């Protein structure tokens, strides 16, 4: 059948290679999802910051959570437990948790010195900007409030942190010319920036840390000083901000701290992360002054 043995060998080799190629494509296409997730978990930690050059955030205003009374109907509970969208959301959260182990995040934080991303060189125009998400959470007053309710008619410097290292990062952006706008010189801050406010989002990494933080509310209030700030200090359970939202806001490393400057429409105009450098400070307060002029028109 094969008068020439070399021809036979050539044909057999082609069949073998083609079979291997088909098997590889089949495996890549139909392998279980957890295999893809596992391959992501063995990727090395982040080595350098990413650069923000385009607007970040959500394409439209989104309320992340509702009052508990909104979820009591059987149909809503059934959909949350067994609905396709809920299952997909839980799978994405599992994928995220596997990728973002404490060791991975700590090493990434160390490698980048907390600079998960570097800020844009200027603030984004309002018509190009995307939205920061809305949510309902408890504040230091003891009551619940919507973030968008707190925006009022001002420019908001929103701090977001989940750990002590993150808190140290965000507070470094308020130390300007020997003054500390965040605490001791907050009155000076209000005089110099009457159309700007500070909003804090404390997002504990676990319910245990959230419980401990709630026990220490007195210390938090003392560090803020001005009672008017209590209603703008949110304690947001980490699970309310999904993995997808965190990735869109680039705040998916809980060791670092983040600053978002948001206008009165909820649009995210500028952002930064990590400890403030001299250049960061100059840029951020230039952005704040520019946006204050915009909102004052």
TrEMBL record:
Any one of the GO BP annotations: mitochondrial proton-transporting ATP synthase complex assembly
InterPro entries per UniProt: ATP10
Annotated Gene Ontology cellular component terms: mitochondrial inner membrane
Superkingdom of origin organism: Eukaryota
Residue ranges that the Swiss-Prot or TrEMBL entry lists as coiled coil: none
Residues spanning the signal sequence: none
Name of the protein described by the UniProt record: Mitochondrial ATPase complex subunit, putative
